[in-house]
Amino acid sequence: MNKYVxxxxxxxxxxxxxxxxxxxxxxxxxRLSGLKSFNAEFSQTVKDEQGETVHEAQGAITMTRPNKxxxxxxxxxxxxxxxxxxxxxxxxxxxEQVTVMSQQQAIENNPMVLLTSNSDELWQQYSITQxxxxxxxxxxxxxxxxxxxxxxxxxxxxxxxxxxxDSQKQQSVIxxxxxxxxxxxxxxxxxxxxxxxxxxxxxx
Length: 204
Known about the structure:
Oligomer: single chain
Largest sheet: 12 strands, mixed
Order of helices and strands: HEEEEEEHHEEEEEE
Strand order of the largest sheet: 7-8-9-10-11-1-2-3-4-5-6-12
């Protein structure tokens, strides 16, 4: 095989690989585009690099597209993380503190943003690979995010779970239950009233 033919083969492989990656991204985008809103309970298990469980949590998630999310943990500690489209609010009931920052800053290189974002510009900042018929791996192309890889899992009904691998090589497995798809969700779910006596740390 001469050098010219070898070059053509290599180029064709690169081209088709590029198409495959693009198709994987479009497949995930299509799956999520039908998810106008989502509400569920969740259980979370975090394991370290050696496979030892280091944290467990339970709570509820509510999200609507575009760009709104409410993540409430009830066990072991009560906290709320609320993204209202402009700011992200973290409410810690144990220390009685509310921290707020720009949502644009908070979502930088965080693949979780694709769950609620319709922005083509944002989607282009992530590498997406379809693992099987019901799972996609998402990684920031910049490579410097806290979450290195997010696996988004589906079943016949829709979104069923997430697996996150972070920069410390800890793996967080999140399973959803009591799922509700595309139900009407009150805008009040994404508003925050700072409780009396809580310290406000505004980092915007």
